[in-house]
Structures are given as structure tokens and as C-alpha cells.
Automatic annotation (TrEMBL):
One of its GO terms (cellular component) is membrane. Belongs to the glycosyltransferase 92 family. This is Glycosyltransferase family 92 protein. GO terms for molecular function: glycosyltransferase activity. It is found in: Membrane. Signal peptide: none annotated. It is a single-pass membrane protein.
Length: 211
């Protein structure tokens, strides 16, 4: 209407799968840069992924205890992936303790793996492994053995063979006794009080109607 002309230019975007991978790389790199002067190591995992240091003589180990025994020179600590059939979660038993079927296969490094990165030494972080280092090349990598730690991925995948695994249960008692965890008894008490209030309200309304 104003006599303007509009020119269209083609802009070829990569396929959706590749775009998703590029977006993952972008936020991974952003995380490394943000923590460059704040954190000794950074790990990026999905909400259904947990790094699990394997127990020693039936006793749980923390990630801090695991990393303390690894060489300081290693800028990238890679953790290999296993899948779990995810069970339903309850307030008194989260799915990480209810899920007891784990894939027999431990996926190789670079496929589904995740890693701890030294943000001051990793130049380019990938999705499943570190791509480039400021110096030293691939000798800055350290792959954890299956007896040290695994990435527990709670998402059943077809084609996998599963076996029973109760190793995660070493953390059930310490975690459920933590003050940070909601106590089922408390919420049951709240629910009981709510039910009583509703019953009393119904009784009051019934009496008013009868009048």
C-alpha cells in the first residue's frame, strides 16, 4: 500500500536433528564459560541422568571423594552410560530407588557418555566428550572404569538386555533421612487434617440445609 517492495532471501537451516545438537553445544559452552573462574569442575547432565560413584565394600561414595583421587592434570573426566527401566516414583521411595533393572551393556565413551570438565582447560566442550583443550590434546582425557563410576540414565530403551541391579540402594537410607527430603508421615498428617476439615464443612452445610 505504501509502495514498498519486499525481497525474500533463502536461508538454508540444517536438519532438525543437527540444529538440536548445535543448540546443545551452545548451552554447554555457555555453562563452561560462566563457571571458568567459579568452579573447579563442571558436569552437564539431563534431568534423568545421575553420575553414580560405585560403592566400595558396600559403602556409598560421593562425587567429591571420587574426584579427589583422580589426577589434577586431567581436564576431562568421562563417565560411561547405562540405561535403567524407570519405575514409578513415590514420596516415600523416589524412582532412583524403585528402579532396579539396568541395561547389561555399558555404552562406549562418546556414545551417551557425559563428563566432568575443568572450565579453565577445556576450549570446546561437546555433548558426550570434550572436543578441544587449551593444551595437551587428548592426553587431558580420563575415562573412568566401570568399577569407579557410571552415568545412570533412567529411560528404558528398546533393544537393550536388562538385569537386576541394587547398587543404588546404598544411598537410600542416607538420602531419605536427609532433612532436605519430604517426610511421608508429615504429608499424611496434612492430608488427614484436610479430610477432617472437609468432613466438618460438609456436616455444617448439611445442618444448614436441613433447617
Amino acid at each position: 500500500r505504501e509502495g514498498l517492495t519486499v525481497d525474500f532471501f533463502s536461508w538454508s537451516l540444517p536438519a532438525a536433528k543437527k540444529s538440536w545438537a548445535l543448540a546443545q553445544n551452545a548451552f554447554t559452552q555457555d555453562c563452561l564459560y560462566r563457571h571458568a573462574n567459579a568452579s573447579r569442575r563442571v558436569i552437564i547432565v539431563d534431568l534423568d541422568e545421575y553420575v553414580f560413584p560405585l560403592p566400595v565394600r558396600g559403602k556409598p561414595r560421593t562425587i567429591a571423594q571420587l574426584l579427589a583421587k583422580l589426577p589434577e592434570s586431567k581436564a576431562c573426566i568421562v563417565v560411561r552410560n547405562v540405561f535403567w527401566v524407570r519405575a514409578a516414583s513415590r514420596m516415600d521411595r523416589p524412582f532412583i530407588f524403585a528402579s532396579l533393572n539396568r541395561s547389561r551393556r555399558v555404552w562406549p565413551t562418546g556414545l551417551r557418555s557425559k563428563y566432568f570438565a575443568d572450565p579453565l582447560e577445556v576450549l570446546e566442550g561437546g555433548i558426550h566428550f570434550c572436543r578441544r583443550f587449551l593444551s595437551g590434546g587428548r592426553n587431558r582425557d580420563k575415562q573412568l572404569t566401570v568399577s569407579q563410576a557410571l552415568l545412570f540414565h533412567y529411560r528404558g530403551v528398546r533393544g537393550e538386555t536388562y538385569a537386576r541391579d541394587t547398587s543404588m540402594l546404598v544411598w537410600e537410607k542416607p538420602l531419605m533421612n536427609s532433612p532436605l527430603m519430604s517426610k511421608p508421615e508429615f504429608w499424611r498428617g496434612v492430608a488427614s487434617k484436610v479430610r477432617n476439615v472437609l468432613r466438618n464443612s460438609v456436616d455444617v452445610v448439611s445442618r444448614l440445609i436441613q433447617r
